[in-house]
Write a structure and sequence with these properties.
By secondary structure, this protein is mainly β. The chain contains two helices and 21 strands. It has a four-stranded antiparallel sheet, with no helix packed on it. The chain has a four-stranded antiparallel sheet with strand order 8-9-10-11. The radius of gyration is 18 Å and the shape is globular.
């Protein structure tokens, strides 16, 4: 498991032992972390994306070598707040409203291979599947884009503050906002299906669909 913090580090954890086995130091607050079976990807409050070698994660190798990233990816104009990686494709978004889709291994091994999407405002959060890219924006809206064409399908209106977290499954989009609400949207029609407001008025920092449940952090 990976975690990132305002203490300027990203940590790789051994879940069985409950211990951090690797520390990736940054020069500023860490915003996003991603882990697969080959690499670790991190972002911070600067504009770049950092790719690290996962094979350096064993305690023995960790003690012997200095931490350096394989590659830093440029192209964003602001801090990268969200990442999505699948089937060799990396999608990232920043606070200026730019979403970049990169052919992951081409951009690492050969050169740039990308598509760029410009949203109507800065992007706080993002969720993707093979059909759509859904982003939560600073202007309190949610924008839904077709994954193939990168054209906007619809805009979802309803939140009264920044949309800070988003998730989806085949039927629903779930969003959490600083307006203390969680909203469930019909994915096909864009209608609000359910509205939850935090009883103590706390800002919603995270939402996650887990089976038939929705997990909320504030």
């Amino acid at each position: 498991a990976m975690s990132g913090s305002r203490d300027k580090t990203a940590l790789l954890w051994d879940l069985e032992k409950g211990q951090a086995i690797r520390e990736l130091k940054h020069s500023i607050d860490v915003r996003t972390v991603y882990l697969n079976n080959r690499v670790i990807i991190t972002t911070d409050d600067y504009k770049d994306i950092y790719i690290w070698d996962l094979e350096a994660a064993t305690p023995e190798r960790y003690q012997r070598r200095k931490e350096t990233c394989i590659r830093s990816l440029t192209g964003h104009n602001g801090p990268v707040h969200s990442l999505h990686c699948e089937r060799g494709v990396l999608i990232s978004c920043d606070t200026t409203g730019v979403v970049i889709e990169k052919d992951f291994w081409r951009c690492v091994e050969e050169g740039p291979g990308m598509r760029i999407l410009r949203c109507s405002d800065g992007v706080n959060c993002m969720v993707c599947d093979m059909e759509q890219v859904v982003v939560g924006l600073l202007n309190k809206t949610i924008e839904v884009y077709d994954r193939t064409t990168m054209l906007k399908v619809r805009t979802l209106w309803g939140h009264d503050d920044h949309v800070w977290s988003i998730d989806m499954n085949k039927e629903y989009i779930v969003s959490g906002s600083w307006d203390s609400s969680v909203r469930i949207w019909d994915r096909d029609e864009g209608r609000i299906m359910f509205l939850y407001t935090h009883p103590h008025g706390r800002e919603i920092s995270g939402v996650k669909i887990s089976g038939k449940r929705i997990l909320v952090t504030s």
